[in-house]
Amino acid sequence: MNVEFDGVEIGPIAGKARVKRSGGRELSPGLLCVVINLPTLVFLALVLAYPIVFAGYLSFHKVAVGNLRSGVYPFIGFENFRRIFADPLFLISLENTLIFTFVAVGTEIVLAVAIALLMSYSTIWTSRVLKMLVLLPFAVPPIANGLIWTFIYSFNFGFLNRVLLSLGLISTPINWIGNPNSALYLLALPYVWRSLPFAILLVHAALQDLNPALYEAAALDGATAWGRFRYITLPLLKPVIVVILVLRTSTAMTVFEEVLAITHGGPGDATWTAAWYSYRQSFAPPFDIGIGSASAYVLGVIIAICAIVYVKLIYRKIG
Prior knowledge:
Elements: E1 3-5, E2 8-13, E3 16-21, E4 26-27, H1 29-59, H2 65-70, H3 79-85, H4 88-121, H5 124-135, H6 142-153, H7 159-166, H8 183-208, H9 212-220, H10 225-252, H11 257-263, H12 274-283, H13 289-318
Antiparallel strand pairs: 1-2, 2-3, 3-4
Helix pairs in contact: 1-13, 3-13, 4-5, 4-8, 4-10, 4-12, 6-11, 8-10, 8-11, 10-13, 12-13
């Protein structure tokens, strides 16, 4: 049976759909996909592809303030890359980025699995309340999230110090962000808070697809709750955990909003990240956009390598 909608005839042929224009030739499935996705592809090319390609062009040229005025960018080859790897601050930024990513992503995965299990196996009322609370960070923009945590960590009037003082757990206020030994780890908390809902929803959706018969068989065999989680739930959740690892590693390694709103890279260079380094090189003295573009490309290569490692070493084990 063929159905015509707005001049387009749609009908099954040998189990497949075909689309035919009125008075014209039949569109193949491949051509139809191109036509449907063409506006999105054009938009992505303008918004993403062009800036990426242009940044790559700038990374091989000298782009300082004087060059921006003249519009002439001399080609200098790999000089920008040589300079950033000779800069100790860039190496510190890379180290901080890797530490931040390891702490933030690891914490996020552990909390996502724990909260998703609590949502799945709690009462209906408790599950609804948890879902509402989980979705709250989605409503807060990243910069606003950073400002909220700035007030929480504030030395003089911060919410955290007030609560701890009122409970008698501390006798004097603590300068949470002012300590270079703990600032980077405390910076991970605001990031985890705003990114955690996405991971929870993925794990929660995966839990809904698990076969209850597996747990019934395990219970009959005398398996404990921990045993069922370790040998049934966790192995079946590995595919979605890999997805979270790849996505969250890429976003954690480009963390910027929390650094901008809370620490500005301080104290000292304790919270300088690779994305913050690129920003400061490009849009603060010395305003060297070539250096900023080169450092951003190095970060992009590191992220790509991490993604490949995840896919090759981890996803292969669950295939």
